[in-house]
């Protein structure tokens, strides 16, 4: 079974001002003359983690990672101002141009898969391939499944903690109830709801609950940006038209892709991965039989590393 490459430090760090408000943290790892690849983190709002660098052979790849607007080490932290899907797509183009990269491989999981698809459909001429995990198309039914009713039937114990900060009379629309508190002026309420939102996601991310994943999601800095930015995107339908990413999958024609999907992913159920695969003939769907959503699960890790090896052979 494949596993992650050894831990590695960036060979270059920089900050990029993408407008008058947002400054992005960007890092490059691996071989400066290698195959260009862009890592897109999840959330939105989660930020990059050190292990994200380890999916790629550092001798073969030049990997670019960045914390999206309001996330991780980008500033201002947890900001919702000028923070939309299309602002992020424009940021990716700014980064590509600043780094003088002509085309690159995109690697993204969960929300990272959403953003990768949006960018690839807008700029197909800049994409050499796609490696996507835990497909999230940001459709209303996917949001409803995880934040109103669906996943709650599988995790009623964790769900009880998720709904606890919301009064009974507001629970018919939990997303908007959370959004009001996450964007309100009461700092204590904002942090309490941010932690409840993020812990729900962390607990349900793996087939077997992984305490290190829960710990990352519950850390206050991460919890605040994750919860605020996710809620902001989701109440706005991710700034996408209904079914936009599926309807525009024709833009991916000729772009090879690998989709890695955990069979028991209850954050982003497999139906979306299946539908994307059907709409994108150049894709290969790899179903991991004993995994949920998280990229930390052994079968998911192995499939993702194999995908980067495959693309190194294809693009090298």
UniProtKB/TrEMBL annotation:
Which SUPFAM superfamilies does the UniProt entry name for this protein? alpha/beta-Hydrolases
What region holds the AB hydrolase-1 domain?
38-295
Tell me, in one coarse class, where this protein mainly resides: cytoplasm
Keywords assigned by UniProt, alphabetized: Aminopeptidase, Cytoplasm, Hydrolase, Protease
Coiled coil start-end? none
A GO cellular component term found in this entry reads: cytoplasm
Q: NCBIfam families this protein is in?
A: pro_imino_pep_1
What name has this protein been given in UniProt?
Proline iminopeptidase
């Amino acid at each position: 079974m494949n596993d992650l490459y050894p831990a590695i430090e960036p060979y270059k760090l920089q900050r990029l001002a993408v407008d008058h408000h947002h400054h992005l943290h960007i890092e490059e790892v691996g071989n400066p003359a290698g195959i260009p690849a862009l890592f897109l983190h999840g959330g939105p709002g989660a930020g990059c983690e050190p292990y994200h660098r380890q999916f790629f052979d550092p001798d073969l790849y030049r990997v670019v990672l960045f914390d999206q607007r309001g996330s991780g080490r980008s500033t201002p932290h947890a900001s919702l101002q000028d923070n939309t899907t299309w602002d992020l797509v424009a940021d990716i183009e700014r980064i590509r141009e600043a780094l003088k990269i002509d085309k690159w491989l995109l690697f993204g999981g969960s929300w990272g898969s959403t953003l990768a698809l949006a960018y690839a459909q807008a700029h197909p001429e800049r994409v050499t391939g796609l490696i996507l995990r835990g497909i999230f198309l940001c459709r209303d039914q996917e949001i409803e499944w995880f934040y109103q009713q669906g996943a709650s039937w599988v995790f009623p114990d964790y769900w009880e903690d998720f709904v606890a900060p919301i009064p009974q009379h507001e629970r018919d629309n939990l997303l908007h109830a959370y959004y009001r508190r996450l964007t309100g002026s009461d700092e204590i309420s904002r942090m309490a709801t941010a932690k409840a939102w993020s812990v729900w996601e962390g607990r349900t991310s793996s087939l077997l609950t992984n305490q290190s994943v829960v710990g990352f999601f519950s850390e206050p800095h991460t919890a605040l940006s994750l919860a605020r930015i996710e809620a902001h995107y989701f109440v706005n339908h991710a700034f996408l038209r209904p079914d936009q990413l599926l309807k525009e999958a024709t833009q991916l024609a000729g772009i090879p892709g690998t989709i890695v999907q955990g069979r028991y992913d209850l954050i982003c159920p497999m139906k979306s991965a299946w539908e994307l695969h059907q709409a994108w003939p150049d894709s290969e769907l790899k179903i991991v039989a004993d995994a949920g959503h998280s990229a930390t699960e052994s079968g998911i890790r192995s499939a993702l590393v194999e995908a980067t090896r495959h693309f190194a052979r294809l693009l090298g």
